[in-house]
Amino acid sequence: MINNSSRFCWSVTHLVMAGLFLMHAQWAAAVTLSEVQQLVGSDSENGDHFSRSMDIDGDTIVISATNADTDPPVVIERTGAVYVFERNTSGALCPVTGEVDPWCEQAKLVAGDVEFGFEAFGEAVALSGDTLFVGARRDDAVGDDPLVRQRAGSVYVFTRSGGVWTQQAKLIASDATDDVQSRFGAVLAADGDLLAVTATRHPAGGTVYVFRNNAGAWIEEAKLAPPPGNSFGAVAIAGNMLAIGSTDDDVAVSSGAVFVYEFDGSNWNLLQKIKADDAAENDIFGTSVEMSGNHMIVGAPHFFEPRIYSGAAYIFELIAGSWVQQAKLTANDSFVGDAFGFGIGVTGTTAIVTADRDDDFGVDSGSAYVYTKTADGWVQTQKIFASDAGENGWFGTRLWVHGDEA
Question: Would you tell me how many other CB atoms lie within 10 Å of the CB of residue 319?
Protein backbone atom coordinates (compact mmCIF):
# COMPACT_ATOMS: atom_id res chain seq x y z
CA MET A 1 0.00 0.00 0.00
CA ILE A 2 1.33 3.38 -0.93
CA ASN A 3 0.45 6.78 0.37
CA ASN A 4 2.28 9.66 -1.25
CA SER A 5 1.50 12.14 1.54
CA SER A 6 4.23 13.61 3.71
CA ARG A 7 2.64 11.98 6.74
CA PHE A 8 3.27 8.48 5.36
CA CYS A 9 6.83 9.25 4.34
CA TRP A 10 7.56 10.44 7.87
CA SER A 11 6.02 7.37 9.47
CA VAL A 12 7.89 4.72 7.54
CA THR A 13 11.17 6.58 7.83
CA HIS A 14 11.15 7.08 11.57
CA LEU A 15 8.94 4.39 13.09
CA VAL A 16 8.98 0.64 13.39
CA MET A 17 5.70 -0.71 12.04
CA ALA A 18 3.43 -2.63 14.41
CA GLY A 19 2.05 -5.94 13.12
CA LEU A 20 -0.34 -8.27 14.92
CA PHE A 21 -1.93 -11.61 14.09
CA LEU A 22 -5.60 -12.24 14.74
CA MET A 23 -8.01 -15.14 14.40
CA HIS A 24 -11.72 -15.81 14.69
CA ALA A 25 -13.78 -18.97 14.55
CA GLN A 26 -15.59 -18.29 11.28
CA TRP A 27 -16.83 -15.51 9.07
CA ALA A 28 -20.45 -15.23 10.16
CA ALA A 29 -23.01 -12.72 11.42
CA ALA A 30 -21.43 -12.59 14.90
CA VAL A 31 -17.73 -12.26 14.08
CA THR A 32 -15.38 -11.85 17.05
CA LEU A 33 -11.68 -11.36 16.47
CA SER A 34 -9.17 -12.30 19.16
CA GLU A 35 -5.42 -11.96 19.38
CA VAL A 36 -3.58 -15.26 19.00
CA GLN A 37 0.06 -14.27 18.94
CA GLN A 38 2.41 -11.32 18.61
CA LEU A 39 5.13 -12.09 16.09
CA VAL A 40 8.66 -10.69 16.19
CA GLY A 41 11.91 -11.77 14.57
CA SER A 42 14.13 -13.91 16.78
CA ASP A 43 17.06 -11.52 16.27
CA SER A 44 15.12 -8.27 15.86
CA GLU A 45 16.82 -5.08 17.01
CA ASN A 46 15.83 -1.44 17.32
CA GLY A 47 15.48 0.15 13.90
CA ASP A 48 14.99 -3.09 11.93
CA HIS A 49 11.54 -1.98 10.71
CA PHE A 50 10.10 -5.44 11.34
CA SER A 51 6.60 -5.67 9.79
CA ARG A 52 7.39 -3.13 7.06
CA SER A 53 5.49 -5.51 4.79
CA MET A 54 3.61 -8.76 5.37
CA ASP A 55 1.58 -11.42 3.59
CA ILE A 56 -0.22 -14.59 4.59
CA ASP A 57 -1.24 -17.62 2.57
CA GLY A 58 -2.59 -20.75 4.21
CA ASP A 59 -0.20 -21.96 6.91
CA THR A 60 2.57 -19.47 6.11
CA ILE A 61 3.16 -15.85 7.12
CA VAL A 62 6.02 -13.76 5.72
CA ILE A 63 7.13 -10.53 7.41
CA SER A 64 9.88 -8.22 6.23
CA ALA A 65 12.36 -6.10 8.17
CA THR A 66 13.95 -3.73 5.67
CA ASN A 67 16.76 -2.64 8.00
CA ALA A 68 17.70 -6.05 9.41
CA ASP A 69 21.32 -7.28 9.20
CA THR A 70 22.51 -10.49 7.60
CA ASP A 71 23.59 -13.33 9.87
CA PRO A 72 27.17 -14.19 10.86
CA PRO A 73 29.82 -14.97 9.78
CA VAL A 74 29.42 -12.15 7.22
CA VAL A 75 27.26 -9.44 8.75
CA ILE A 76 26.05 -6.79 6.33
CA GLU A 77 24.21 -4.04 8.14
CA ARG A 78 20.77 -2.81 7.17
CA THR A 79 20.46 -5.00 4.10
CA GLY A 80 16.93 -6.21 4.87
CA ALA A 81 15.47 -9.63 5.51
CA VAL A 82 12.22 -11.59 5.36
CA TYR A 83 11.14 -13.84 8.22
CA VAL A 84 8.97 -16.88 7.48
CA PHE A 85 6.55 -18.21 10.10
CA GLU A 86 4.62 -21.46 9.76
CA ARG A 87 1.54 -22.63 11.61
CA ASN A 88 2.38 -25.05 14.42
CA THR A 89 -0.17 -27.78 13.71
CA SER A 90 1.63 -30.50 15.70
CA GLY A 91 1.80 -28.68 19.01
CA ALA A 92 5.57 -29.19 19.13
CA LEU A 93 8.08 -26.79 20.64
CA CYS A 94 9.10 -24.06 18.24
CA PRO A 95 12.85 -24.36 17.54
CA VAL A 96 13.56 -20.65 18.02
CA THR A 97 11.51 -19.81 21.13
CA GLY A 98 11.36 -23.24 22.77
CA GLU A 99 7.65 -22.62 23.38
CA VAL A 100 4.51 -24.19 21.95
CA ASP A 101 3.60 -21.11 19.93
CA PRO A 102 0.71 -21.15 17.42
CA TRP A 103 3.16 -19.92 14.77
CA CYS A 104 6.88 -20.80 14.64
CA GLU A 105 9.68 -18.87 12.95
CA GLN A 106 10.96 -21.19 10.23
CA ALA A 107 13.44 -19.18 8.16
CA LYS A 108 15.16 -15.84 7.64
CA LEU A 109 15.74 -14.97 3.98
CA VAL A 110 18.14 -12.39 2.54
CA ALA A 111 19.16 -11.47 -0.99
CA GLY A 112 21.65 -13.93 -2.46
CA ASP A 113 23.77 -11.22 -4.09
CA VAL A 114 23.84 -8.60 -1.36
CA GLU A 115 27.15 -6.84 -0.63
CA PHE A 116 25.94 -3.52 0.74
CA GLY A 117 22.98 -2.51 2.87
CA PHE A 118 20.15 -0.01 2.52
CA GLU A 119 18.67 -1.49 -0.65
CA ALA A 120 15.23 -1.89 1.00
CA PHE A 121 15.03 -5.65 0.53
CA GLY A 122 11.56 -6.45 1.86
CA GLU A 123 9.95 -3.11 1.04
CA ALA A 124 7.12 -5.29 -0.29
CA VAL A 125 6.42 -9.02 -0.14
CA ALA A 126 3.86 -11.23 -1.85
CA LEU A 127 3.25 -14.90 -1.08
CA SER A 128 1.47 -17.32 -3.39
CA GLY A 129 1.66 -20.96 -2.31
CA ASP A 130 5.29 -22.05 -2.41
CA THR A 131 6.48 -18.92 -4.20
CA LEU A 132 7.59 -15.78 -2.42
CA PHE A 133 8.34 -12.44 -4.06
CA VAL A 134 10.43 -9.81 -2.29
CA GLY A 135 10.78 -6.26 -3.57
CA ALA A 136 14.02 -4.32 -3.14
CA ARG A 137 13.15 -0.85 -4.40
CA ARG A 138 16.71 0.53 -4.02
CA ASP A 139 18.61 -2.42 -5.48
CA ASP A 140 21.20 -1.40 -8.05
CA ALA A 141 24.55 -2.19 -9.63
CA VAL A 142 26.70 -0.63 -6.91
CA GLY A 143 28.57 -3.58 -5.42
CA ASP A 144 25.71 -5.82 -6.44
CA ASP A 145 24.03 -6.83 -9.68
CA PRO A 146 25.50 -5.20 -12.83
CA LEU A 147 22.21 -5.79 -14.65
CA VAL A 148 20.23 -3.59 -12.26
CA ARG A 149 20.35 0.09 -13.13
CA GLN A 150 21.21 2.79 -10.60
CA ARG A 151 18.63 2.60 -7.79
CA ALA A 152 16.11 1.14 -10.24
CA GLY A 153 14.96 -1.66 -7.93
CA SER A 154 14.30 -5.36 -8.38
CA VAL A 155 12.16 -8.28 -7.21
CA TYR A 156 13.65 -11.51 -5.83
CA VAL A 157 11.79 -14.78 -6.38
CA PHE A 158 12.08 -17.58 -3.80
CA THR A 159 10.49 -21.03 -4.00
CA ARG A 160 9.90 -23.60 -1.28
CA SER A 161 10.67 -27.30 -1.66
CA GLY A 162 10.71 -29.72 1.26
CA GLY A 163 10.35 -26.81 3.66
CA VAL A 164 13.49 -25.08 2.33
CA TRP A 165 13.35 -21.69 0.59
CA THR A 166 15.75 -21.07 -2.31
CA GLN A 167 16.24 -17.97 -4.43
CA GLN A 168 15.27 -18.87 -7.99
CA ALA A 169 15.23 -15.63 -9.95
CA LYS A 170 15.58 -11.88 -9.88
CA LEU A 171 13.23 -9.67 -11.88
CA ILE A 172 13.96 -6.18 -13.20
CA ALA A 173 11.89 -3.80 -15.31
CA SER A 174 12.35 -4.01 -19.06
CA ASP A 175 12.77 -0.24 -19.31
CA ALA A 176 15.04 0.35 -16.30
CA THR A 177 17.50 3.20 -16.89
CA ASP A 178 20.44 4.71 -15.03
CA ASP A 179 19.87 7.58 -12.61
CA VAL A 180 16.10 7.13 -12.52
CA GLN A 181 15.11 5.88 -9.09
CA SER A 182 11.90 4.27 -10.29
CA ARG A 183 11.47 2.14 -7.12
CA PHE A 184 10.53 -1.00 -9.02
CA GLY A 185 9.39 -3.48 -6.36
CA ALA A 186 7.94 -0.91 -3.94
CA VAL A 187 4.51 -2.59 -4.16
CA LEU A 188 3.70 -6.22 -5.04
CA ALA A 189 0.63 -8.39 -5.52
CA ALA A 190 0.56 -12.04 -6.58
CA ASP A 191 -2.12 -14.55 -7.48
CA GLY A 192 -1.19 -17.96 -8.83
CA ASP A 193 0.89 -17.52 -11.97
CA LEU A 194 0.55 -13.73 -11.99
CA LEU A 195 2.67 -11.07 -10.33
CA ALA A 196 2.04 -7.31 -10.37
CA VAL A 197 4.92 -4.96 -9.51
CA THR A 198 4.64 -1.20 -9.04
CA ALA A 199 7.52 1.18 -9.73
CA THR A 200 6.16 4.09 -7.73
CA ARG A 201 8.72 6.67 -8.90
CA HIS A 202 8.65 5.80 -12.58
CA PRO A 203 8.82 8.99 -14.69
CA ALA A 204 5.44 8.14 -16.20
CA GLY A 205 3.86 8.75 -12.80
CA GLY A 206 4.25 5.26 -11.40
CA THR A 207 4.02 2.16 -13.57
CA VAL A 208 2.70 -1.35 -12.96
CA TYR A 209 4.45 -4.32 -14.57
CA VAL A 210 2.64 -7.63 -14.95
CA PHE A 211 4.67 -10.86 -14.97
CA ARG A 212 3.37 -14.34 -15.78
CA ASN A 213 4.92 -17.68 -14.89
CA ASN A 214 5.81 -19.49 -18.11
CA ALA A 215 7.17 -22.98 -17.38
CA GLY A 216 8.93 -21.72 -14.26
CA ALA A 217 10.22 -18.47 -15.77
CA TRP A 218 8.60 -15.18 -14.84
CA ILE A 219 8.14 -13.16 -18.05
CA GLU A 220 7.10 -9.52 -18.23
CA GLU A 221 3.73 -9.58 -19.96
CA ALA A 222 2.56 -5.97 -19.77
CA LYS A 223 3.56 -2.50 -18.65
CA LEU A 224 0.68 -0.28 -17.51
CA ALA A 225 1.21 3.46 -17.15
CA PRO A 226 -1.34 5.81 -15.57
CA PRO A 227 -3.43 8.26 -17.58
CA PRO A 228 -2.25 11.89 -17.41
CA GLY A 229 -2.86 13.48 -14.03
CA ASN A 230 -2.67 10.19 -12.13
CA SER A 231 0.08 8.21 -10.37
CA PHE A 232 -0.05 4.44 -9.88
CA GLY A 233 0.71 2.97 -6.46
CA ALA A 234 -1.34 0.34 -4.61
CA VAL A 235 -2.16 -2.81 -6.58
CA ALA A 236 -4.37 -5.87 -6.14
CA ILE A 237 -4.69 -8.84 -8.45
CA ALA A 238 -7.31 -11.59 -8.55
CA GLY A 239 -7.66 -13.97 -11.48
CA ASN A 240 -7.89 -11.96 -14.70
CA MET A 241 -8.53 -8.64 -12.97
CA LEU A 242 -6.02 -6.08 -11.76
CA ALA A 243 -6.92 -3.06 -9.62
CA ILE A 244 -4.47 -0.14 -9.31
CA GLY A 245 -4.85 2.75 -6.93
CA SER A 246 -3.95 6.32 -7.84
CA THR A 247 -3.99 8.84 -5.01
CA ASP A 248 -3.80 11.65 -7.55
CA ASP A 249 -6.53 12.30 -10.06
CA ASP A 250 -7.33 14.73 -12.83
CA VAL A 251 -10.79 15.50 -11.40
CA ALA A 252 -9.75 16.99 -8.03
CA VAL A 253 -6.29 17.28 -6.49
CA SER A 254 -5.45 14.07 -4.63
CA SER A 255 -9.07 12.93 -4.61
CA GLY A 256 -7.90 9.54 -5.88
CA ALA A 257 -9.18 6.78 -8.13
CA VAL A 258 -8.82 3.05 -8.84
CA PHE A 259 -8.21 1.75 -12.35
CA VAL A 260 -9.39 -1.80 -13.07
CA TYR A 261 -7.81 -3.79 -15.91
CA GLU A 262 -9.02 -7.10 -17.30
CA PHE A 263 -7.02 -9.71 -19.23
CA ASP A 264 -8.71 -10.88 -22.43
CA GLY A 265 -6.29 -13.71 -23.15
CA SER A 266 -3.82 -11.48 -24.97
CA ASN A 267 -3.83 -8.00 -23.44
CA TRP A 268 -4.63 -6.15 -20.23
CA ASN A 269 -7.38 -3.66 -21.10
CA LEU A 270 -8.74 -0.83 -18.98
CA LEU A 271 -12.17 -2.00 -17.85
CA GLN A 272 -13.23 0.76 -15.50
CA LYS A 273 -12.14 3.82 -13.56
CA ILE A 274 -13.62 3.84 -10.05
CA LYS A 275 -14.11 6.87 -7.82
CA ALA A 276 -15.97 7.35 -4.58
CA ASP A 277 -19.47 8.72 -5.03
CA ASP A 278 -18.55 11.61 -2.73
CA ALA A 279 -14.97 12.15 -3.95
CA ALA A 280 -13.33 15.34 -2.74
CA GLU A 281 -9.94 17.01 -2.86
CA ASN A 282 -7.18 15.41 -0.72
CA ASP A 283 -9.17 12.24 0.14
CA ILE A 284 -6.36 10.10 -1.41
CA PHE A 285 -8.91 7.42 -2.30
CA GLY A 286 -6.90 4.48 -3.67
CA THR A 287 -4.15 4.64 -1.03
CA SER A 288 -4.99 0.98 -0.45
CA VAL A 289 -7.02 -1.49 -2.50
CA GLU A 290 -7.83 -5.18 -2.06
CA MET A 291 -10.00 -7.66 -3.96
CA SER A 292 -11.62 -10.88 -2.75
CA GLY A 293 -14.11 -12.74 -4.89
CA ASN A 294 -16.64 -10.23 -6.19
CA HIS A 295 -15.78 -7.64 -3.54
CA MET A 296 -13.29 -4.80 -3.65
CA ILE A 297 -12.43 -2.48 -0.77
CA VAL A 298 -10.65 0.86 -1.21
CA GLY A 299 -9.19 3.09 1.49
CA ALA A 300 -9.35 6.89 1.62
CA PRO A 301 -7.52 7.69 4.89
CA HIS A 302 -7.61 11.45 4.41
CA PHE A 303 -11.37 11.68 3.91
CA PHE A 304 -12.37 14.71 5.95
CA GLU A 305 -16.14 14.59 6.51
CA PRO A 306 -17.14 15.24 9.24
CA ARG A 307 -13.59 15.46 10.67
CA ILE A 308 -10.41 16.30 8.80
CA TYR A 309 -8.36 13.21 7.87
CA SER A 310 -10.64 10.96 9.90
CA GLY A 311 -10.78 8.60 6.91
CA ALA A 312 -13.18 6.27 5.12
CA ALA A 313 -13.26 3.00 3.19
CA TYR A 314 -15.50 2.03 0.31
CA ILE A 315 -16.81 -1.40 -0.68
CA PHE A 316 -17.58 -2.22 -4.31
CA GLU A 317 -19.25 -5.31 -5.73
CA LEU A 318 -18.82 -6.80 -9.20
CA ILE A 319 -22.24 -6.80 -10.81
CA ALA A 320 -22.77 -7.75 -14.46
CA GLY A 321 -19.12 -7.05 -15.24
CA SER A 322 -18.94 -3.63 -13.53
CA TRP A 323 -17.78 -2.56 -10.09
CA VAL A 324 -20.60 -0.81 -8.23
CA GLN A 325 -20.22 1.01 -4.90
CA GLN A 326 -22.21 -0.79 -2.21
CA ALA A 327 -21.12 0.85 1.03
CA LYS A 328 -19.04 3.55 2.62
CA LEU A 329 -17.46 2.58 5.94
CA THR A 330 -16.50 5.03 8.66
CA ALA A 331 -15.66 4.55 12.33
CA ASN A 332 -18.45 5.13 14.84
CA ASP A 333 -15.98 7.08 16.99
CA SER A 334 -14.00 8.80 14.24
CA PHE A 335 -11.71 11.64 15.22
CA VAL A 336 -9.43 14.16 13.54
CA GLY A 337 -6.36 12.52 11.96
CA ASP A 338 -7.22 8.87 12.73
CA ALA A 339 -6.40 7.87 9.11
CA PHE A 340 -9.13 5.24 9.04
CA GLY A 341 -8.74 3.32 5.76
CA PHE A 342 -4.97 3.02 5.66
CA GLY A 343 -5.15 -0.76 6.12
CA ILE A 344 -8.07 -2.63 4.55
CA GLY A 345 -9.18 -6.20 3.97
CA VAL A 346 -12.32 -8.02 2.90
CA THR A 347 -13.27 -11.68 2.76
CA GLY A 348 -16.76 -13.13 2.41
CA THR A 349 -19.13 -11.07 4.55
CA THR A 350 -16.44 -9.50 6.74
CA ALA A 351 -14.35 -6.38 6.22
CA ILE A 352 -11.57 -5.00 8.43
CA VAL A 353 -10.36 -1.40 8.31
CA THR A 354 -7.51 0.03 10.37
CA ALA A 355 -6.94 3.48 11.84
CA ASP A 356 -3.26 3.51 12.71
CA ARG A 357 -3.39 7.01 14.19
CA ASP A 358 -6.29 6.35 16.54
CA ASP A 359 -5.45 7.56 20.07
CA ASP A 360 -7.45 5.29 22.41
CA PHE A 361 -4.30 4.04 24.18
CA GLY A 362 -2.09 7.05 23.63
CA VAL A 363 -1.16 9.21 20.67
CA ASP A 364 -1.08 7.11 17.47
CA SER A 365 -1.61 3.83 19.32
CA GLY A 366 -3.80 2.57 16.47
CA SER A 367 -6.82 0.31 16.16
CA ALA A 368 -8.87 -1.76 13.70
CA TYR A 369 -12.60 -1.99 13.04
CA VAL A 370 -14.54 -5.09 11.99
CA TYR A 371 -17.62 -4.90 9.77
CA THR A 372 -20.17 -7.57 8.84
CA LYS A 373 -22.41 -7.61 5.80
CA THR A 374 -26.04 -7.98 6.86
CA ALA A 375 -29.41 -7.58 5.24
CA ASP A 376 -29.25 -3.93 6.27
CA GLY A 377 -25.80 -3.35 4.81
CA TRP A 378 -22.30 -3.35 6.31
CA VAL A 379 -22.43 -2.92 10.09
CA GLN A 380 -19.55 -2.24 12.49
CA THR A 381 -19.39 -5.13 14.97
CA GLN A 382 -16.07 -4.77 16.79
CA LYS A 383 -13.09 -2.53 17.47
CA ILE A 384 -9.77 -4.21 18.26
CA PHE A 385 -6.37 -3.15 19.62
CA ALA A 386 -3.00 -4.73 20.26
CA SER A 387 -2.78 -6.39 23.66
CA ASP A 388 0.14 -4.11 24.51
CA ALA A 389 -1.26 -1.01 22.79
CA GLY A 390 0.56 2.20 23.60
CA GLU A 391 1.69 5.56 22.32
CA ASN A 392 3.25 5.55 18.83
CA GLY A 393 2.43 1.88 18.29
CA TRP A 394 0.77 2.63 14.92
CA PHE A 395 -1.17 -0.64 15.16
CA GLY A 396 -2.79 -1.23 11.79
CA THR A 397 -0.26 0.44 9.50
CA ARG A 398 -0.33 -2.83 7.53
CA LEU A 399 -3.22 -5.26 7.19
CA TRP A 400 -3.54 -8.51 5.26
CA VAL A 401 -6.54 -10.83 5.46
CA HIS A 402 -6.61 -14.47 4.35
CA GLY A 403 -9.49 -16.77 5.18
CA ASP A 404 -10.12 -16.54 8.91
CA GLU A 405 -6.86 -14.81 9.80
CA ALA A 406 -5.65 -11.25 9.60
Answer: 10
